[in-house]
Amino acid sequence: MAASFFTLIIFLLASPPVYGWRPWPPSSTTNTSHYPFSDSKKYEGSSDFVKLRYHMGPVLTSNITIHIIWYGTWNPTQKKIIRDFVNSLSDTSVPHPSISGWWRTVQLYTDQTGANISKSVVLGEEKNDRLYSHGKSLTRLSLQGVIKSAITASTRPLPINPRSGLYLLLTADDVYVQDFCTSVCGFHYFTFPSLVGYTLPYAWVGNSGKLCPGYCAYPFAMPAYVGPAERKAMKSPNGDVGVDGMISVIAHEMAEVATNPLANAWYAGEDPTFPVEIADLCEGIYGTGGGGSYTGQLLDARDGATYNMNGIRRRFLVQWVWSHVLSYCTGPNALDH
Ligand SMILES: *[C@@H]1O[C@H](CO)[C@@H](O)[C@H](O)[C@H]1NC(C)=O
Ligand SMILES: *[C@@H]1O[C@H](CO)[C@@H](O)[C@H](O)[C@H]1NC(C)=O
Ligand SMILES: *[C@@H]1O[C@H](CO)[C@@H](O)[C@H](O)[C@H]1NC(C)=O
Question: What residue ranges carry the coiled-coil annotation (predicted)?
Fold first, then answer.
């Protein structure tokens, strides 16, 4: 008993990086050969080869509360953009194509009892970690330390909500996190009781604005390796390349936490340490015709900014997610379905 518990802990601590968001387009350092699509098959991700399966674990069927931990220095405008995005997830009064329309695809997923993922996503209490409590270079395990500090703080600790809380840890643009910029822009997992005291689903997303915008804030910044012809970045909808780039990564991770919070619910792939989840399947696809190196059909704002969905007070560019009902990637701005 003790041995198997200990083995489990060692397994968890030794687990390779999983559930990471890999940027688009794939860089020379990203090995995409395990992906279910070759470039030529990436037309909106439609494929007979995708075997997304439900592995019987829980999904987030209760009203979801997002608890943001702002790690490091964040200005009020940046916070407002991200809060507006989170608040847009459940706001059905926003004109089509809307962020809440995007979340409807996530709601199609169910648990063993047939209960759908919650339609209601609200912003809960937030915590500032202005003084970089765990330094400016974080490991995957020290991210859990940051969460622990936030739920055990002596003043205004975040509530402990393992059933319907989603802890969103956002690191400022001067913070490096293990594997950031080389293989991930964000990831999701759950906290270990041995470290944090509870099993809490969480996601981390970094602001890549200074460290690697061409990697994590594409297409609002271009990777260094693209040629001069393709070098022109798109104008970001809220005037902050790092934060506008984070929005799609936050959306990606939230869709995956909701459908696979404990890594035993909805995912494709044979390798349980490298599951391919509902947003992984649609990376780089933002509109009709997307796939390969094409983002798909997007919208132009009057000021020349590029976006694909409306939110509260502002616009966002958010990648699509896989619909297991349609068997392809979709979003509210789809022209053909
Ligand atoms: C990429 O991964 C595949 C298997 O997933 C492996 O066979 C191949 O050698 C890898 N390529 C590189 C360049 O690491
Ligand atoms: C719940 O999921 C089922 C199965 O995917 C789907 O048919 C139904 O429309 C979903 N309900 C809502 C409210 O999204
Ligand atoms: C869930 O949220 C809805 C509004 O979106 C609200 O009407 C309902 O009372 C909430 N349920 C619980 C259990 O809090």
Answer: none
